[in-house]
Write a structure and sequence with these properties.
With 252 residues, the chain is an alpha/beta fold. The protein has 2 domains: 167 residues, HAD superfamily/HAD-like (Rossmann fold, 3-Layer(aba) Sandwich); 73 residues, Trehalose-6-phosphate phosphatase related protein, domain 2 (Alpha-Beta Plaits). The protein has 8 helices and 12 strands. Helix 2 links the parallel strand 1 and strand 2. Bound molecules: magnesium ion. The site of magnesium ion has 7 residues, from loops.
């Protein structure tokens, strides 16, 4: 992103009267860490977010695939709204609400498949969230991890159709969840309830693409992908530091 675009975003933000800011967490506000529990929000970003939260006429959400209790640990010192588990859980005004109806029968079929791959790929592990199952390979040997992830996706294909699930093929992670969830759907729901004249949406992973794609139809949306790769986002920032710098300008 060039400085002209940055200035334009800042100007549009300041002159808007009903703003929506959607920020992914891992890889966008904090570095991806080998141990997910270590991904604490740096004090500097924490201060910027706090200022934005108190900015009138601004609705700000952290939008993440993390489990809702998990993300709460990092953010409970800030009165911020959160969309967790790819939209399955939403926290507004301090209250968590479930957005999805699901009996989770599918987990009984999917867990053995994940176990089968985990046994073959050292240092990989399974995380069970309320609404999804996730297989992480960030600590595994990179080549074996990637190859195993392809094998896993292949094994899952049949079950995905049978149970109406979807696979998120993310950064060193494969996540299985019901088709009703996703950041794109979560964002669409917000739009059915409100009208915004400025939208800022920032994320770094494939799970954020649904959100960027949804915003293609909104001319007042600024979508930003952090890092390299093909994207539906209109703009790119190189790293977390640049995200912090942009948000800092908006918060002042
Ligand atoms: Mg991310």
């Amino acid at each position: 992103m060039d400085s002209k675009t940055e200035a334009e975003i800042n100007e549009k933000f300041k002159s808007a009267t009903n703003r929506l800011v959607l920020l992914d967490y891992d890889g966008t506000l904090v570095k991806h860490t080998a141990i997910p529990d270590m991904a604490k929000l740096p004090a500097e970003i924490s201060d910027i977010i706090r200022k934005l939260v108190h900015n009138p006429q601004t609705e700000i959400f952290i939008i993440t695939g993390r489990g809702h209790e998990d993300i709460d640990k990092f953010l409970n010192h800030i009165p911020i709204n959160i969309i967790a588990e790819h939209g399955a859980m939403v926290k507004e005004d301090g209250v968590w609400r479930n957005q999805i109806i699901d009996n989770f029968e599918w987990k009984k079929t999917i867990i053995p498949i994940l176990n089968q791959i985990t046994v073959k790929c050292a240092e990989s592990f399974i995380e069970e969230k309320y609404f999804s199952l996730t297989w992480h390979y960030r600590n595994a040997d990179p080549d074996l991890g990637y190859a195993s992830s392809r094998e896993l996706i292949h094994l899952l294909e049949k079950e995905i159709q049978a149970f109406n699930l979807k696979i998120l093929d993310g950064n060193k992670v494969v996540e299985i969840l019901t088709n009703e969830t996703g950041k794109g759907r979560a964002v669409k729901k917000l739009f059915e309830q409100n009208q915004y004249d400025f939208i800022l949406s920032i994320g770094d992973d494939v799970t954020d693409e649904e959100m960027f794609e949804y915003f293609l139809q909104h001319s007042n949306a600024f979508t930003i992908k952090v890092g390299e790769g093909l994207t539906f986002a209109r703009y790119k920032l190189n790293n977390i530091k640049e995200v912090a710098s942009l948000l800092k300008q908006l918060s002042e």
